[in-house]
Design goal:
By secondary structure, the chain is mainly alpha-helical. The strands form two sheets. The protein has a two-stranded antiparallel sheet with strand order 1-2. The protein is built from 20 helices and four strands. The chain has four domains: 2-139, no CATH class; 142-244, no CATH class; 258-359, no CATH class; 370-398, no CATH class.
Amino acid sequence: MRQKEVDRIEKIRKDMQTIVKIGEILQVDTRDLQKHLRKISSIEEKRIAELCILPSGSQSHQDQYIPVIVGEETIQGMLDIIPTFQRLSENTVFLQILTDEESKEIKDEFSNKTCELIIKNVWQNAESKWKRLCNEMKSGNIKFKTFEKYFKGMNTEEVRTVLKMMSDKDVGWIDQRINQYRDLKLMTQCSKAAILILKIVQEYDLKGDFSPIRSLTEMGHIGENSLKSIDKSKLEVCKVLHGITEENVECLQAFIESKPLIKWLNENLKEDELKVFVDLATIAAGEGDIEVAKVKCLQSATAGYAPLIFILKKPCDSKLFLGKCKQVWKECETDKALPRKLRDTCNHLEWIENVKSATGSVEVTSLKLAENINQHGFYIIGGLKTLSSRTKLVFQTN
């Protein structure tokens, strides 16, 4: 009988520890529970009679005897929570549900009630949401945005571990959901890039066939789509934009935001005049730190974005445009600050206009001639046949 009492004390102590842990997760006042927990801890220092309530006549019914532990009544109404919590206590998704905004609202609603009432009501709501989430996950009806809310930031193995906790014995659906999420995530990224590209097409009035990219913007709000609702034809179109990163998107965003600069460059310079203009800006800058910094910014930005800057006057379809984008993205990999430099150069447009207006045609022609000589010229020195001294400069014109 004494062993029964010791075993019962140990069980209630563990159950009480679990309920206190749940209360701490929910940030509920568990001081009364902790007070009882302290009483039944370190039983070797206490007499069993201090911890058990012995009913009269218990000695004659030892087989049926179930000890009643001091403070046991404080958790009696929450014992059914314990098995589920012990199974899911390491499940990050369940813990998110247990502490989400809806749970906080329920906790606030019952703030003047007992610890037991608060925990039970929050738990019932969380458990209901968890079961609904499990059913939606197994069926594939879970929305992309809901999946991402709970699983974003996890790697594939972490996702698989949580999904296994959602399944019973059938785990055949798990890899399917992971692949569906991966596909929808790709479609989301491609959709963002597609919207941005079509904005460039509209802003700069590009002429050509952009229908493959346009189709990606007609999928609606992807976050509302269920994982099982993937349109395979759209997934095929995604291959056109596969591999576009957030950095690539930022690169295009800077190009849109710098429209005043891009428009000015197209209206005032030809592609082969860009380097000459940068040289003129370098001469105009002199040795002033601010002006030198502006020139360096101008040089980096225009050189990096040149493939896109001077495409605006030519017929251009999605294939050609993406080819030019890849050239610019490669430059951005080398210089991560390229989008910022383009924006900064756009902010310096008035200074650039002043450089242009202060430059005469003689300077432009001289620099172009020097550039042509440097690129295409060669010298013939001496006269091998006539033995006469001769120096001759020959260069090809574009």
